[in-house]
Amino acid sequence: RIVKFLKQLYLLAFGFLEAVQAMFWVSILMTVVLYVCSIIMVRTVGRLPPDDPHAEFLHKQFADIRTSMLNLFTLMSAPDLPQYASQDGLLFQRPLLLLFLIAFIMIGSFGMIALLTGVISESMFEKNQLRVEEARKEQDALMEVLQEKAERIHSRLNLNDKGEASAEEVCRKAIPQIVELFDNAMVEYTESSLAQLVDCMDNTGNGEIDSDEFVHAVMTYANGVKPLSIQEVHHNVMVCNHKLDKLNTDVETLLESMQKG
């Protein structure tokens, strides 16, 4: 549980770092936009003749690049057109200024928020895809290790001439090793289900379990097929197939003997 909690905490911290990185690049873009717009405003409306009725107000807003960038950033973060509309005839006498302010607010305020949201979402989606691929590779590597160790566990049991171990031998010696193996690999299990799993390993129904049957059952369980009903269905199907193969062989033998007789 602690490992799962730390994993969720890691994902949250990772997402926060991705958001900070996206905000950094959007901030760089916003700074460039503010700088360019500030140059335009300083050169167009920031240096009007003294006899212009709006020269004092516009000079206060766009006197130099630094002041212009600060005021434009304030306008971007908290759009406030009424202060410009309160100046008699400012916006209507200068329609280009009105269009610039409207476009700047729409692109700078709403557009930057949408861009930031999109960049963060896209970045998180890409990283999530990478994490899924990484998790798949880790799962494949874990399954290879489990398969190798399961084969080794079965080979250390008391086997007959056919390389099979009795169900009692598997339950008594192999299951404790499987429990330790699952603990090390952090595979979820219950001891009662593992004990019942032994009954599903014998696909031939002869009371003996070979290496393939043992490894298949362990790998299937480790892969997440936890409900024993599914394992039991597979077990019953395999038993039926074995009996049908045996019956088919017996019938063919009987037919051959009848033909010879």
Structure description:
With 261 residues, this protein is an all-alpha fold. It has 10 helices and 2 strands. The protein has a two-stranded antiparallel ribbon with strand order 1-2. Helix 8 packs parallel to helix 10. It is rod-shaped, with a radius of gyration of 37 Å. The protein starts with a helix and ends with a helix. The mean pLDDT is 79.
Structure summarized in a few sentences:
The protein is mostly helical and 261 residues long.
Secondary-structure element sequence?
Answer: HHHHHHEHHEHH
Q: Give the DSSP E fraction (strand runs of 2 or more residues).
A: under 5%
Radius of gyration: 37 Å
**How are strands sequenced across the largest beta sheet?**
1-2
Helix fraction bin: over 70%
Q: Compute the separation of the termini in Å.
A: 71 Å
Q: Describe the biggest sheet?
A: 2 strands, antiparallel
Task: Note poorly predicted spans.
Answer: none
Overall mean pLDDT stands at 79
Kindly state the number of beta strands.
2
How many H/I helices?
10
Shape: rod-shaped
Give the structural class: mainly alpha
Quaternary status: single chain
What is the topological layout?
Blueprint: H1 2-44, H2 55-61, H3 65-77, H4 82-85, H5 90-93, H6 95-155, E1 165-166, H7 167-185, H8 191-201, E2 208-209, H9 211-222, H10 228-260
Antiparallel strand pairs: 1-2
Helix pairs in contact: 1-3, 1-6, 6-7, 6-9, 7-8, 8-9, 8-10
